[in-house]
Amino acid sequence: MIVTVLLTLVVAQTWLQERLKIRLRQRLTHVLLDLWLKPNRAYQLGLTGKAAAQPDQRLQEDCRLFAEFTAELGAGMLQALLLLVSFVGVLWTLSSYARFEFYGQEVVIPGYMVWVAIAYAAIGSGLTWLVGRPLIRLNTERYAREADLRFAVVRVNESAESVALYNGELDERRNLDEFVDAVLKATRRLSGALARLTWITSGYGWLAIVVPILAAAPGYFSGTLSLGEMMMVVGAFNQVQAALRYFVDNFPKIADWRSAVLRVASFRHAALDLDEAIAHNQCIEVQLHPEGWLTFEGLSIALSDGSILIEDATAEIRPGERVLIQGASGSGKSTLFRAIAGLWPWGRGVIRVPAPEQIMFLPQRPYLPLGNLRAAVSYPAAPDTFDEATVEAALERCGLGEFADALDRRERWDQTLSLGQQQRIAFARLLLHKPQWVFMDEATSALDDESQASMLSVFTRELAGASVLSIGHRTELEAFHTRTLHIRKTDEGAVLLARRPQEEPPLFASWVHWLHRRLVP
Ligand SMILES: Nc1ncnc2c1ncn2[C@@H]1O[C@H](COP(=O)(O)OP(=O)(O)OP(=O)(O)O)[C@@H](O)[C@H]1O
Asked: For this UniProt entry, which segments traverse the membrane (predicted)?
């Protein structure tokens, strides 16, 4: 019966501990994911530096370590507490056997052996803390270097094609060696600190064998304590000591736990501080326009170091307009787009924008989520939002008819589709979502002129009436827009200059351009 009860208790403890790990991890990961994926935050955190670096590791490994160590250390502490409660009374009672003779007088110190056990554990724990404290910092350092190495390997893997085309394997090898060296260096420092701590933890364990005997010895030698009584006292002392040495025994794990807590906490604080910093500093204000237009009012865009990219821009883009933004490379066109999207806070002035649900951004390299092609085309809506025929028609319209049968195929579509095909997918998305405002940043850069004309004609056919703001270098683009804004560099920074609207209607211009390409070899 006793075996059955004990076995049941052990199984129940293991089960509860494992459940606790899962619940803790689930809760913490969800809290961090919610914080991280608030609108714009993941991008902005990426710009803030080290405090929120390596989100992958913090969300995965640090959360796992935190959950596992919290459950294990918590269960260990509970066990130690139960052991202490069970035996402290026994040791207190047995301590009365440890009597001393002092100038012929018999002296009894109440709970003498309990005080010795507490003093011994306090000294051991204090020394452990003093010697082992650097482990927290060293663990944090090691986890950061491990994350750097993993990120570097993933990056090489993602860029394997470019690396191979440049014959850059040797160079990558040298780079990765640096990351591996950094990990090994951090691990070596950690091993040194662990070895130093072992002097204390092992020494504490060995000395614990003799400490109770030494403590009770005066009573034994004075004849007030028999050998049998001394053995009982030592036995009870060891049980109490097993509970009190919890901190010494578990310190390496506690240091690991603490560094996981610090990494998770610094990530959380970085996310929360970001909002506060944006609220308290002078930043670009992005507000809803009451009429649903896009306006820039005294807009200055700066870099995070304070240098000005675009100076005091004022412009107004009304519904139905198609405006092209041109400017030299590095003049700040993409940054202006980021500012419109609310991603770029550095600067001042006001951007008034249409309702977010009316807007769709098309970057140069469209984001294709992991999963099947249907998910990629429907993004950011759920894959089952649009019916089969509508999705197939959108693909067909964008010259991707051959992929209509592959809608449910799971692949790394971002690697198997050419950049031009990926840009067509972005246009197919436009046809499905039908936004009233479209912001394009070099969204047709990988398409030939004919395909570009075909894609851009959605704004005169399927999405006629939609407002378009686009960035592009190619001169053919001007024909599809009603107006051009130029970002021009001056001594004070770049300024936004408006050019008068083009006289030719864009559809006609695109036809002229098409005919010209057909007729003139
Ligand atoms: N995350 C960033 N951190 C620091 N500087 C940045 C960042 N993003 C852009 N910049 C800087 O801002 C300036 C403008 O960059 P941006 O990408 O807006 O130029 P662009 O006009 O779109 O160039 P291109 O036509 O070549 O794409 C550049 O000097 C660039 O180095």
From this structure: 73-92, 112-132, 197-221
Check: complex ipTM more than 0.90: yes
Q: Which residue lies with its CA nearest to atom 8 of ligand 1?
A: 335
Q: d(Cα 399, Cα 344) in Å, to the nearest integer? A: 34
Q: Tell how far CA 172 is from the center of its chain.
A: 25
334 vs 42, 279, 356, 520, CA distance in Å?
18, 24, 19, 34
Ligand 1 mutation pick, 45, 335, 343, 474, max ligand atoms within 8 A of CB: 335
The residues, any chain, with a CB within 8 Å of residue 260's CB and separated by 6 or more, are 62, 65, 66, 69, 143
pLDDT at position 507 is 43
* CA-wise closest residue to 220 among 127, 334, 302, 98: 98
Which residues does 390 contact at the CB level (< 8 Å), separation at least 6? 432
**Smallest Cα–Cα separation from 66: which of 27, 110, 124, 123?**
27
Minimum-distance ligand 1 atom for the alpha carbon of 336: 18
User: 262 pLDDT band (50/70/90 cuts)?
Assistant: very high
What structural domains and CATH numbers belong to the chain? 2-280 (1.20.1560.10), 285-519 (3.40.50.300)
Angle, vertex CA 283, rays to CA 279 and CA 288, nearest 5: 85
* Sign, CA torsion 386/389/394/395: positive
The band of 40, judged by pLDDT with boundaries at 50, 70 and 90, is confident
> How many other CB atoms sit within 10 Å of the CB of residue 324?
23
Q: Which residues contact 304 (CB under 8 A, 6 or more apart)?
A: 47, 346
DSSP state of 346: B
Per residue in 59-114, pLDDT (tens digit) is 999 999 999 999 999 999 999 999 999 999 988 888 877 777 777 777 778 888 89
Q: Residue type for 497, please?
A: L
Separation CA 290–CA 166 (nearest Å): 52
Identity (one letter) of the amino acid at 407? L
Rounded Cα distance between 44 and 47, Å, is: 5
